[in-house]
Design goal:
alpha/beta; six-stranded mixed beta sheet; 24% strand; five-stranded mixed beta sheet; 12 helices
Amino acid sequence: MLPLLFRDPNKTKDGEIIVLAGDVGGTKTNLALYKMTKGKIIELKEGNYKSQKYQSITEITGDFLKDQPQPAACCIGVAGPVFDGKVKLTNLSWEMDSIEIAKKMELAKVYLINDLEATAYGLAMLSDEDLVTIHKGSDTPFGNAAIIAPGTGLGEAGLYFDGRIYYPFATEGGHCDFAARDQEDFELFEYLQKKFGHVSYERVICGPGISNIYQFLQEEKKLEEPAWITEKIKQGDAAAEISEHTEQSALCDKTMQLFIRFLAYESANLVLKMKATGGLFIGGGIAPQLIPLFKKYSFNPSFKDSGRMNHLLEKVTVSIILNPKTAMLGAAYYAAKA
């Protein structure tokens, strides 16, 4: 998809290599064993685990790698900022150290990178069928790119373009301050401030964020909740139930309208900060399930609502990543190229 290059092109491995890739989030941990050859990637095994049921990543990898070939390298995308190969996950009570993990797994090297950085590397492994364009920008996109990904939290990453190659880098932009634009937004801000103290965009643009907006509308704006919706939310995934019943419930409808609008605003913020004229990619598990809502709730007009910079935003193509394994593919790419 994008002409990515690892920091040292002379270290690229052209032969066959088996790598272990991981994607660790607050809700789930995904692992995959890949055999990578020249320009091809073959999945040997994959596994999905509920993160909260385990005490560490090595507990999961130990189970996953039973009776499997030993990987030559491992890269794990993690939901949190990585410093010197160490990370304390944002939405999970794990602390991970690449050196300790490497010792327990008996590997020469284990790489920990931010999960959105892994997603950025994964763009190099995608085809056109893995993307759907929701806003068509310039016919000849050129420049930096960016990724925003609502999931359990809100991830953001950038891709610096040097005129020939893209270089992914992590950010923690999802934790920047939420900005209210009208009276209702201010009321939502005050509601969340009382509840959480600091109010970031992650408080409104993620799965739990959908629930936060819903509760605000119910408790403060007094929108009625149908009894059958109450039961569905109690028994299932609250965010999923809310997003799936916008036609049957005014409360769900208003919730998702605000969610899409806030996602559009923060997407524009990210593009402007990165000058991401090369494109914006929306990742995570939520957006692919909501594609019809982007048009219904006017994502594009809200995205291009930044005053004097509207002309820049009009040039930016916005695409939703459909492939749920993008972060895994990116981690595999990184492990093979490191």
